[in-house]
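Hey, I'm writing a tutorial for new members on how sequence and structure tokens pair up, and I'd like a real worked example in the thread rather than a made-up one. If someone can provide the structure for the chain below, I'll link this post from the tutorial.
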Amino acid sequence: MFVKRLLGIEKQFESDAQRVMIVGLGNPGREYRENRHNVGFMVIDALAEKFGITPGKVKSKAILGEGRVDGMRVVLVKPQTFMNLSGQAVASLVKFYKIPLDRMLVIHDDLDLPLGILRLRPGGGSGGQKGIASIIERLGTQEFPRMRVGIGRPPGRMDPADYVLQDFSKQDKDELTFLFQRAVDAVEVFIHSDLQTAMNQFNGGSNGGDKA
């Protein structure tokens, strides 16, 4: 009995240690679904399709999908608090699942990167991204991995706040399939290896190699 109990504890510890949480940022609601600001949600949807995970569970103000990817426990998260309050859901789920911060990846849009460019980084400031700012505030640290997904700058003198809440243009959408595939590939490397390996392979241009 003692041996079985000990093995059960070890199995639970191993399971917890292998859990990874992938968070995509966006705004809930049909009217925001195709917005540039919701590219994090779009990547989560692409991951769910690739991994065969169905996001349907609601917990801590977020929609979750849980499953295993080659034996690794993966939690896909779409906060439903609106972008500016994303930290509420993320901090609660980190605590509930006991996720080490280096095994959480937050995916979000970035105005300062051209459309189609991915940039993974281990931490740092919010860069003006309010969802990231909320997560930093709630976690009390800037040190957590994130994937910046380039959406490009607004044309002319358009207000960036208006730009991010517009849908992707038809021309942009032609590039999204390839972009999402690269994002999925990068997340898979993060899950099975680590952030540094993913950075080495996917940072920068479409062929990777830019490690800045």
